[in-house]
Design brief:
The structure is a homodimer of 143-residue chains. Helix content of chain A is 31%, strand content 36%. The longest helix of chain A has 23 residues, at 41-63. Chain A has two domains: 1-39, Single Sheet (N-terminal domain of TfIIb); 41-138, K homology (KH) domain (GMP Synthetase, Chain A, domain 3). The first copy, chain A, starts with 6 loop residues before the first strand and ends in a 5-residue tail after the last strand. In chain A, helix 1 crosses helix 2 (103-117). Chain A is globular. Chain A has helices at 41-63, 103-117, 119-124, and strands at residues 7-11, 16-20, 26-30, 67-79, 87-99, 129-138. In chain A, strands 1-2-3 form a three-stranded antiparallel β-sheet, with no helix packed on it. The mean pLDDT of chain A is 95. With 143 residues, chain A is α+β, with helices and mostly antiparallel strands. Chains A and B meet through strand 1, strand 2, strand 3, helix 1 and strand 4 of A and strand 1, strand 2, strand 3, helix 1 and strand 4 of B.
Chain lengths: 143, 143
């Protein structure tokens, strides 16, 4: 992303916003009303945190030649009771499925992302504490 | 959003991730490669910050009975040179078009969002300083 890259958010009526990323990709956002048209900005933040660390971890596991057949990240959080209702904790749980995947490799990839690479997670710290965890599931070769 | 709401990010291959928000809306994310399939997680963070304050500001201006005909927010940022390349500054610029819109009403709406309501902006502080600005454009009634 270049230094002066700009995201634009346009109010599109009908309780919907259109966000356009600096790279030119548009996506809809909802405003959190009953109508529930699209992910809300706060939900996007959770997805951004999980997506950022997912990019790092999958890339590191590929470099470590781990055989990963499925990978997902689950993000949940705790927020302040008072306004603004910012996140105070974000729980980032990695689920790695594969063949003979080394738990140590997964742990080290998550640690590298959390401490060194993930720009999004680092931006939300220290307001939100980011708590990581993981599980490794052996792919059943008979399936 | 309920307390135990969970966002899921699934690696979908082809340099793409699918994020599913706690409310059940899916969106694609790119990993920032040359292929450039979708907004990256870091871009989503910028959109989330702008979208969050946009929701507040448009709602406050509606309550103040301001006649707004178009509204958008532009978000740019500065990041650390070192890893992790988190944001140190986020510039959030509001562009309000309308008929006789009061600059004081806009300024006060932005201040309320920034200081009291916007959960996303508050989550990125103090790591990122959030710098707001705005312009009010009179709608040309002859158009």
């Amino acid at each position: 992303m270049e230094q002066n890259a700009k995201a634009t958010i346009h109010y599109a009526g009908n309780e919907t916003l259109i966000g356009i990323s600096p790279s030119g990709h548009a996506l809809a956002m909802g405003i959190g009303s009953d109508r529930d048209t699209a992910a809300t900005p706060l939900e996007l933040l959770m997805i951004a945190v999980g997506g950022c660390t997912a990019v790092d971890v999958i890339s590191i596991l590929q470099k470590k030649r781990q055989i990963v057949t499925d990978y997902r990240v689950e993000v949940s959080g705790e927020r302040r009771e008072e306004r603004p209702r910012s996140f105070t904790k974000l729980f980032v749980h990695h689920i790695v499925r594969g063949r003979g995947v080394s738990p140590e490799a997964v742990e080290s990839a998550i640690k590298l992302s959390d401490e060194k690479y993930c720009s999004v997670a680092d931006t939300v710290k220290p307001k939100a504490e980011v708590i990581t965890s993981f599980e490794v599931i052996e792919e059943d070769e008979s399936v």
